[in-house]
Amino acid sequence: xxxxxxxxxxxTKESITQSLLRLMxxxxxxxxxxxxxxELAGVSRNAFYRNYPAKDAILRQYMYEITDxxxxxxRTIKNLTAKQYFTTIFAETGKQKELVRxxxxxxxxxxxIDVIFTFFRNFTLHTSQVHYYQCHFxxxxxxxxxxxxxxxxxxxxxELGSLMCKFNHIAPTTRINLPDPxxxxxxxxxxxxxxxx
Length: 197
Fold this sequence. Notes:
Largest sheet: none
Mean pLDDT: 88
Oligomer: single chain
Shape: globular
Protein backbone atom coordinates (compact mmCIF):
# COMPACT_ATOMS: atom_id res chain seq x y z
CA UNK A 1 0.00 0.00 0.00
CA UNK A 2 1.47 3.35 -1.00
CA UNK A 3 1.64 6.23 1.47
CA UNK A 4 -1.32 8.11 -0.05
CA UNK A 5 -3.59 5.07 0.27
CA UNK A 6 -2.42 4.48 3.83
CA UNK A 7 -3.07 8.12 4.73
CA UNK A 8 -6.58 7.86 3.30
CA UNK A 9 -7.18 4.63 5.20
CA UNK A 10 -6.02 6.27 8.44
CA UNK A 11 -8.25 9.31 7.88
CA THR A 12 -11.23 7.05 7.18
CA LYS A 13 -10.65 5.00 10.32
CA GLU A 14 -10.19 8.10 12.46
CA SER A 15 -13.42 9.58 11.10
CA ILE A 16 -15.31 6.34 11.78
CA THR A 17 -13.93 6.11 15.31
CA GLN A 18 -14.70 9.70 16.25
CA SER A 19 -18.18 9.40 14.76
CA LEU A 20 -18.97 6.35 16.88
CA LEU A 21 -17.69 8.06 20.02
CA ARG A 22 -19.84 11.13 19.28
CA LEU A 23 -22.90 8.98 18.69
CA MET A 24 -22.30 7.13 21.95
CA UNK A 25 -22.66 10.39 23.83
CA UNK A 26 -26.28 10.79 22.74
CA UNK A 27 -27.56 7.35 21.71
CA UNK A 28 -27.76 3.90 23.24
CA UNK A 29 -24.89 1.79 21.89
CA UNK A 30 -27.25 -0.97 20.81
CA UNK A 31 -29.25 1.56 18.77
CA UNK A 32 -26.27 2.90 16.83
CA UNK A 33 -26.25 1.39 13.35
CA UNK A 34 -23.42 1.10 10.86
CA UNK A 35 -25.43 3.47 8.66
CA UNK A 36 -25.53 6.05 11.49
CA UNK A 37 -21.75 5.84 11.82
CA UNK A 38 -21.14 6.05 8.06
CA GLU A 39 -23.44 9.04 7.61
CA LEU A 40 -21.78 11.01 10.39
CA ALA A 41 -18.29 10.01 9.24
CA GLY A 42 -19.06 10.81 5.60
CA VAL A 43 -17.92 7.39 4.37
CA SER A 44 -19.62 4.57 2.49
CA ARG A 45 -20.64 1.25 4.05
CA ASN A 46 -18.04 -0.39 1.78
CA ALA A 47 -15.37 1.86 3.27
CA PHE A 48 -16.56 0.91 6.75
CA TYR A 49 -16.37 -2.83 6.08
CA ARG A 50 -12.97 -2.52 4.42
CA ASN A 51 -11.69 -1.34 7.80
CA TYR A 52 -13.89 -2.99 10.44
CA PRO A 53 -15.93 -6.19 10.59
CA ALA A 54 -18.35 -4.79 13.19
CA LYS A 55 -19.06 -1.90 15.57
CA ASP A 56 -17.21 -3.46 18.53
CA ALA A 57 -14.02 -3.67 16.48
CA ILE A 58 -13.89 0.13 16.23
CA LEU A 59 -13.69 0.55 20.00
CA ARG A 60 -11.39 -2.41 20.49
CA GLN A 61 -8.87 -1.10 17.95
CA TYR A 62 -9.10 2.42 19.36
CA MET A 63 -8.25 1.10 22.83
CA TYR A 64 -5.45 -1.06 21.46
CA GLU A 65 -3.94 2.05 19.90
CA ILE A 66 -4.12 3.84 23.26
CA THR A 67 -2.56 0.95 25.18
CA ASP A 68 0.15 0.57 22.53
CA UNK A 69 1.35 4.04 23.55
CA UNK A 70 1.45 2.82 27.17
CA UNK A 71 3.55 -0.19 26.18
CA UNK A 72 6.02 2.06 24.43
CA UNK A 73 6.17 4.35 27.47
CA UNK A 74 6.77 1.41 29.82
CA ARG A 75 9.66 0.23 27.63
CA THR A 76 11.46 3.51 28.24
CA ILE A 77 11.65 2.85 32.00
CA LYS A 78 14.91 1.14 32.90
CA ASN A 79 14.67 -1.69 35.42
CA LEU A 80 10.88 -1.43 35.48
CA THR A 81 9.39 -2.44 38.84
CA ALA A 82 5.93 -3.76 39.64
CA LYS A 83 4.91 -0.54 41.35
CA GLN A 84 6.12 1.59 38.43
CA TYR A 85 4.29 -0.73 36.04
CA PHE A 86 0.95 -0.54 37.82
CA THR A 87 1.28 3.15 38.68
CA THR A 88 1.94 4.01 35.02
CA ILE A 89 -1.06 2.01 33.83
CA PHE A 90 -3.36 3.63 36.41
CA ALA A 91 -2.05 7.09 35.51
CA GLU A 92 -2.55 6.53 31.79
CA THR A 93 -5.99 4.98 32.25
CA GLY A 94 -6.97 7.98 34.40
CA LYS A 95 -6.28 10.20 31.39
CA GLN A 96 -8.91 8.19 29.51
CA LYS A 97 -11.61 8.63 32.16
CA GLU A 98 -14.17 10.02 29.69
CA LEU A 99 -13.73 6.98 27.48
CA VAL A 100 -14.11 4.62 30.46
CA ARG A 101 -17.28 6.43 31.52
CA UNK A 102 -18.61 6.24 27.97
CA UNK A 103 -17.98 2.48 27.82
CA UNK A 104 -19.63 2.04 31.22
CA UNK A 105 -22.68 4.04 30.13
CA UNK A 106 -22.92 2.06 26.88
CA UNK A 107 -22.70 -1.24 28.79
CA UNK A 108 -19.79 -2.44 26.67
CA UNK A 109 -17.25 -2.84 29.44
CA UNK A 110 -16.55 -6.31 28.07
CA UNK A 111 -14.50 -4.51 25.41
CA UNK A 112 -12.45 -2.78 28.09
CA ILE A 113 -11.88 -6.13 29.82
CA ASP A 114 -10.78 -7.63 26.49
CA VAL A 115 -8.19 -4.91 25.98
CA ILE A 116 -6.94 -5.09 29.57
CA PHE A 117 -6.69 -8.88 29.28
CA THR A 118 -4.60 -8.50 26.15
CA PHE A 119 -2.46 -5.84 27.84
CA PHE A 120 -1.55 -8.35 30.56
CA ARG A 121 -0.76 -11.11 28.06
CA ASN A 122 2.34 -13.08 28.95
CA PHE A 123 2.57 -11.24 32.27
CA THR A 124 4.70 -13.99 33.74
CA LEU A 125 5.66 -13.15 37.29
CA HIS A 126 4.48 -16.71 37.88
CA THR A 127 5.16 -19.30 35.23
CA SER A 128 2.37 -21.78 36.00
CA GLN A 129 -1.24 -21.29 34.88
CA VAL A 130 -0.36 -18.08 33.05
CA HIS A 131 -3.79 -17.79 31.42
CA TYR A 132 -5.58 -17.73 34.78
CA TYR A 133 -3.05 -15.30 36.18
CA GLN A 134 -3.74 -13.05 33.20
CA CYS A 135 -7.51 -13.36 33.84
CA HIS A 136 -6.96 -12.46 37.48
CA PHE A 137 -5.04 -9.30 36.62
CA UNK A 138 -7.52 -8.26 33.92
CA UNK A 139 -10.50 -8.73 36.22
CA UNK A 140 -9.03 -7.05 39.27
CA UNK A 141 -7.52 -4.15 37.31
CA UNK A 142 -10.79 -3.58 35.46
CA UNK A 143 -12.79 -3.52 38.69
CA UNK A 144 -10.36 -1.10 40.33
CA UNK A 145 -10.29 1.21 37.30
CA UNK A 146 -14.06 1.43 36.99
CA UNK A 147 -14.55 1.97 40.73
CA UNK A 148 -11.79 4.61 40.78
CA UNK A 149 -13.02 6.58 37.78
CA UNK A 150 -16.73 6.36 38.59
CA UNK A 151 -15.92 7.67 42.08
CA UNK A 152 -13.96 10.69 40.76
CA UNK A 153 -10.48 9.22 41.34
CA UNK A 154 -9.98 9.94 45.05
CA UNK A 155 -6.66 8.04 45.17
CA UNK A 156 -3.49 8.83 43.26
CA UNK A 157 -2.13 6.43 40.64
CA UNK A 158 0.80 5.81 43.01
CA GLU A 159 -1.57 4.75 45.79
CA LEU A 160 -3.39 2.40 43.44
CA GLY A 161 -0.10 1.00 42.17
CA SER A 162 0.85 0.17 45.76
CA LEU A 163 -2.57 -1.40 46.39
CA MET A 164 -2.28 -3.55 43.26
CA CYS A 165 1.07 -4.85 44.51
CA LYS A 166 -0.32 -5.43 48.00
CA PHE A 167 -3.48 -7.23 46.88
CA ASN A 168 -1.49 -9.49 44.56
CA HIS A 169 1.31 -10.16 47.08
CA ILE A 170 3.95 -8.70 44.76
CA ALA A 171 6.89 -6.81 46.22
CA PRO A 172 6.78 -3.25 44.78
CA THR A 173 10.43 -3.54 43.72
CA THR A 174 9.91 -6.77 41.75
CA ARG A 175 11.38 -6.36 38.26
CA ILE A 176 8.91 -6.68 35.39
CA ASN A 177 9.79 -8.30 32.07
CA LEU A 178 7.52 -6.96 29.36
CA PRO A 179 6.30 -9.23 26.55
CA ASP A 180 7.63 -8.77 23.04
CA PRO A 181 5.89 -6.05 21.03
CA UNK A 182 2.98 -7.13 18.86
CA UNK A 183 1.32 -5.21 16.04
CA UNK A 184 -2.16 -3.82 16.66
CA UNK A 185 -3.44 -5.67 13.57
CA UNK A 186 -2.29 -8.92 15.19
CA UNK A 187 -3.88 -8.01 18.53
CA UNK A 188 -7.21 -7.68 16.72
CA UNK A 189 -7.06 -11.33 15.67
CA UNK A 190 -6.13 -13.05 18.93
CA UNK A 191 -8.55 -14.55 21.44
CA UNK A 192 -10.12 -12.17 23.92
CA UNK A 193 -11.01 -12.52 27.58
CA UNK A 194 -14.74 -12.61 26.93
CA UNK A 195 -14.47 -14.72 23.77
CA UNK A 196 -16.85 -12.54 21.81
CA UNK A 197 -16.58 -12.19 18.04
